[in-house]
Amino acid sequence: MKVLMVGDIFAKPGREVFKKNIESLIKDNQIDFVVVNGENTTHGKSISKEHYYFYKENHVDVITSGNHIFKNTEVLEYINQTPDLLKPLNMYKTPGNGYVIIEKNNKKICVLNLMGNNFMDPSNSVYETMDEFLSLKLSYDILLVDFHAETTAEKIAFALNYDGIITAFVGTHTHVQTADERILPNGTAFITDLGMSGVIDSVIGIEAADAIYKQKTGLVRRFQPAKGKAKLNGVIIQIDEKSNKAISIKRISI
């Protein structure tokens, strides 16, 4: 089985580069299952109902998110009816699901969304949340984790703590793809951050001038999604059909 996991899709340029490439990615790489992080989909923050359906029409099985998921209040109106749109499981008592189990190609695939505790919005302990999740002893063959967090150290530490329990661990949130993809000692496929799918010559998706103005002056300016050439960033993970263990993880940047 091959799984495609795509990093934070940022605004219209991110959606366009995803739509342009998804069918060829699936065909050329024989992809069986697609996960995208959609928390920046709509104008850079959160995801409208229209854009939820955009993903469903473009071969996406599960949409993960992060700290911006509820910045668009429209999400509150529909997230309880869309179990394949996830919010971080440890995000207090907010609506929606933190994980989902989908059966595909005779495999039960669990996708779990978590948010880090360091330099992020307040949330429950990610370790306690993970341990509570594991204590449920749910029935699945493959466990994919999107860990939405700020620091590389927190992502690496968490992944190593659950190495061999998680099939594949991918970090999101920083919007910068890391070059440390590998199989951890006990078999978990890992990358610190998938990177952003959006305009590369920007400041993590927003117009550079807006970010520079704020950094130079300390004054607030409304951030606008950047325009220009975009890239799609993510990974392809191959999983052994018999053992359900990760065989390989390969970065993509298109």
From TrEMBL:
Binding residues for Fe cation 2: 39, 67, 148, 173
InterPro entries noted in UniProt: Metallo-depent_PP-like, YmdB-like
Residue sites binding Fe cation 1 per the record: 8, 39-40, 175
Keywords of this entry: Metal-binding
Pfam families to which the protein is assigned, alphabetical: YmdB (PF13277)
GO molecular function, one term: metal ion binding
Organism superkingdom: Bacteria
SUPFAM superfamilies: Metallo-dependent phosphatases (SSF56300)
Active-site residues, as the UniProt record annotates them: 68 (proton donor)
NCBIfam families registered for this protein in UniProt: TIGR00282 family metallophosphoesterase
Protein name: Metallophosphoesterase
